[in-house]
Write a structure and sequence with these properties.
By secondary structure, the chain is an alpha/beta fold. The protein has 2 domains: 5-66 and 323-429, Alpha-Beta Complex (Aspartate Aminotransferase, domain 1), CATH 3.90.1150.10; 72-320, Type I PLP-dependent aspartate aminotransferase-like (Major domain) (Aspartate Aminotransferase, domain 2). Helices cover 40% and strands 15% of the residues. It contains 15 helices and 16 strands. Strands 4-12-11-10-7-5-6 form a 7-stranded mixed β-sheet, sandwiched between helices. The mean pLDDT is 97. The chain binds ligand KE4. Ligand KE4 is lined by residues 24, 26, 62, 117-119, 122, 145-147, 158-159, 207, 211-212, 240, 242-243, 267, 277, 401.
Length: 430
């Protein structure tokens, strides 16, 4: 067994001063049991914990590190900018460059506002939709997670699912009343909400490739019908691409489906591991945003040059290297190996993959929505998680999260993962 004594000691200290000992709930290992690891260093595809153990990392800080940890272009950009300035609280050249990169890559993104997290981006996007339409209600989907803004914490995914409380106390009935919840990949459930709230729905927000109930892709037919329904009802369609943006394709999930939303939200990869979020879309819609229009949104560190420099370096490296075929095929290799191992050992397993994000659901039936996702065996996942951890592979500590493959996951890392999975499945089979 690996030695985790330093992590255990740090976790005891952390619990004295931080709620649950963590700064974000999903890190607490509640979904898999045991004590969270405390990490000290990262390089490429690897994490190194406080006890000096090395792990192939499939969390990638929940998505930002598509290039792997410490990519030279990003590290150099951060070092250079640190010596100049980290923040002005005033405009800088770099935020114009990042905005130009984003609007140049993403279909229909004409104006974009930088913020400091995905949560800020999604909160702001819904506020803009409400300000633009003059309507108050919006539709989200069961199992999708859009950050911890009050109105999203209803039947949400990610850590909410992991902890078995998909709706959070502290969200007022007023906030909840304006949040309508539909079923992912079920257009009838959306149509029903439009019919029962005529002329009242400002927006529909969706993860076109959901990652927060585990990876579940919207079907093309469903997204197309969703686009049509929104257009028909004068409702703004918001693609929350905080996770899928620049992950499943350079131009985002929308480009794979050939569907352009009215608004986008981004995060994770566009900060290259530092805090950056963004929201934007059609010029006419974004012109309601202050100081152009009356819809207010602000942020002390929005567009700060240090985080933006990391984001620009990440996007430029993605554009220059175009690693998508490489990382997607690495993810295919892993997915195929997981299915083969599970098959050999009689373990019910569904592996959903889009691009280089994937989830292994310990489920007998295909997973296409929230209900089928939560039918998975979290107990089997927990056993698998620890069996992989002991063999040097760090997976997201929850059945309801995405695994991320990076440009730094080479043949050695893939082979180590496949061997570990074979032995973990053997262990599961008993
Ligand atoms: P942040 O506020 O965490 O930067 O972004 C919120 C968010 C918005 N939209 C989507 C689609 C997201 O996936 C997220 C955040 N994702 C989770 C991982 N499932 C962040 C990890 C965490 O909460 O600790």
């Amino acid at each position: 067994m690996l030695d985790f004594s330093q992590s255990n000691a740090l976790f005891s200290r952390a619990q004295n001063v931080i709620p649950g000992g963590v700064n974000s709930p999903v890190r607490a290992f509640k979904g898999v049991g045991g004590t969270p690891l405390f990490f000290e260093r990262a390089e490429g595809a690897y994490l190194f914990d406080a006890d000096g153990n090395r792990f192939v990392d499939y969390v990638g800080s929940w998505g930002p590190f598509i290039l792997g940890h410490g990519h030279p272009s990003v590290r150099e950009a951060i070092h250079r900018q640190t010596d100049l300035a980290t923040s002005f609280g005033a405009p800088s050249r770099l935020e114009v460059e990042l905005a130009e990169l984003l609007t140049g890559l993403i279909p229909g993104l004409e104006l974009v506002r930088l913020v400091s997290s995905g949560t800020e981006a999604t909160m702001s996007a819904v506020r803009v939709a409400r300000g633009f339409t003059g309507r108050e209600k919006f539709i989200k989907f069961e199992g999708c997670y859009h950050g911890h803004g009050d109105s999203f914490l209803i039947k949400a995914g990610s850590g909410m699912l992991t902890h078995g409380n998909p709706s959070s106390p502290g969200v007022t009935s007023g906030a909840a009343a304006d949040t309508l919840v539909a079923t992912f990949n079920n257009i009838a459930s959306v149509r029903q909400l439009f019919d029962s709230n005529p002329g009242e729905i400002a927006a529909v927000i969706i993860e076109p490739v959901a990652g927060n109930m585990g990876v579940v892709a919207a079907t093309p037919e469903f997204l197309l019908e969703l686009r049509d329904l929104c257009s028909k009802h004068g409702t703004l369609l918001i693609f929350d691409e905080v996770m899928s943006g620049f992950r499943v394709a350079l131009r985002g999930a929308g480009s794979i489906y050939g569907i352009t939303p009215d608004l986008y939200t981004f995060g994770k990869i566009i900060g290259g591991g530092l805090p950056v979020g963004a929201y934007g879309g059609a010029r006419a819609v974004l012109e309601v945003v202050s100081p152009l229009g009356p819809v207010y949104q602000a942020g002390t560190l929005s567009g700060n040059p240090l985080a933006v420099a990391a984001g620009i370096a990440t996007l430029r490296t993605l554009i220059e290297n175009n690693p998508y075929q490489q990382i997607d095929s690495a993810a295919v290799t892993i997915a195929d190996a997981l299915r083969a191992s599970a098959g050999r050992h009689g373990i019910p397993l569904q592996v959903n993959r889009v691009g280089s994000m994937l989830t292994a659901f310990f489920a007998a039936e295909p997973v296409g929505d929230y209900a089928s996702a939560v039918a998975s065996s979290t107990a089997q996942f927990a056993t698998f998680f620890h069996a992989m951890l002991q063999r040097g592979v760090y997976l997201p500590p929850s059945q309801f999260e995405a695994w991320f493959v990076s440009m730094a996951h080479g043949d050695a890392e893939i082979e180590l993962t496949i061997q570990a999975a074979e032995r973990a499945m053997q262990e599961l089979a008993g």
